[in-house]
Amino acid sequence: MRSSLRLLALPLLAISSGALAQTNFRPGYVVQPAGDTLRGEVDNRGAQYNGTISRFRPDAAATVVEYQPQQLAGYGFVSGQHYQALTLPGQVPTKAFLEVLALGQLSLYHYTDAAGKEHYYTRKGTEPLLPLVQRDTTVTRVNAQTGLPVTTKERQYPLRAVLWSQMADCPTAQVAVKSLELKESQLLKAVTAYNACQGGAATYARPARTSKTRFTALVLANRGQMDIERVGKDKVQSGWSAGGGLGLDFAPAFFNPKLTLQLQLLYTQHSFTKEQAVSDAQLVTGTDGRINYSIVQNTIQIPVLLRYTYPKGPVRPYLQAGPLLSLFTKNSADAVLTYKTYAGVAKTENSSLEMRSYGIGGTIGVGVAIPTAVGDFTLEARNDVTDALVHDDGISGKSGVSVVAGFTFGK
């Protein structure tokens, strides 16, 4: 079963590797130092890359030109981020492309460095950038009552002093600074409020992220496997069967944009059969014994998955995993034993096992998402496992391999 999953996943991994190496040109522009704006397509490869270089081409057939921050005033995307080339504060001044979060009397910027660490800066008017910093420190103090040292963690907020000073001419906006955390949504709200206090809205403010829910339709091909200990622990596999279902794709505003929650409702059907010889020592009452197991399962699967999706490119690989609840609308296991008595008379004995009505387990999958104008097409290889399915010893939990195709409606 694991080898089957690997075989199913290999093509998806190959597609994913190709996707990671692809460029991601989108309609955009570059602003030259003299103020001239060139329109065309700009490569969008993520926050770290976008902060150090801008790759521009007038159209899809044109040669790509790479710009360093020293060569442009800024660049951006028609329906996305906007960047300005600014000098970062520090002992060694460095110029970089900073993402614009808000422009006005007080402007707010975001930058991701080469190590992936996020930084926020503000600038009042044409003054130099000031960093917004929040840090956690460990402090050791002597307890006055016990005389023993006590170590605690404290959070310091230098950013509040910076913003308090910059907003000194608007006391109503200063109030929010007292409890401000280094969170993009809070910073954007505070800066926007200050610019409004100064006599008008900001000339630009990046829209705040909102939670989003999308509907998904799914079809799948699935194959199951389990152990039947009473026939020598041999693996028993079902054939491939078709199934389908529905899902909801949740993207909470407070989540990292690369993460989503998937709640799915899937229906599958499996039929397992296994015939095995029974030794005379096990049979006791006769010879030539054979036992045939027939197991039928109709299952409603409810996986709850956390999905990580690489957010750029025409083909976007993803990995997801989470718990699984299986509800069996039918879960029967019948055993038919045939043998000959010592007198040579053929005998048949029928029995049924008491099976559980549910199973608990987990799911993991790897796939690709292909964005379109009306939604995302997905293709995935998935493996799931559930715990034991019978009250008595004899039948193990089930594992399954699936190929799942889906379409998530909406952008």
UniProtKB/TrEMBL annotation:
<dbReference type="Pfam" id="PF13568">
    <property type="entry name" value="OMP_b-brl_2"/>
</dbReference>
<dbReference type="InterPro" id="IPR025665">
    <property type="entry name" value="Beta-barrel_OMP_2"/>
</dbReference>
<feature type="signal peptide">
    <location>
        <begin position="1"/>
        <end position="21"/>
    </location>
</feature>
<keyword id="KW-0732">Signal</keyword>
<feature type="domain" description="Outer membrane protein beta-barrel">
    <location>
        <begin position="230"/>
        <end position="383"/>
    </location>
</feature>
<protein>
    <recommendedName>
        <fullName>Outer membrane protein beta-barrel domain-containing protein</fullName>
    </recommendedName>
</protein>
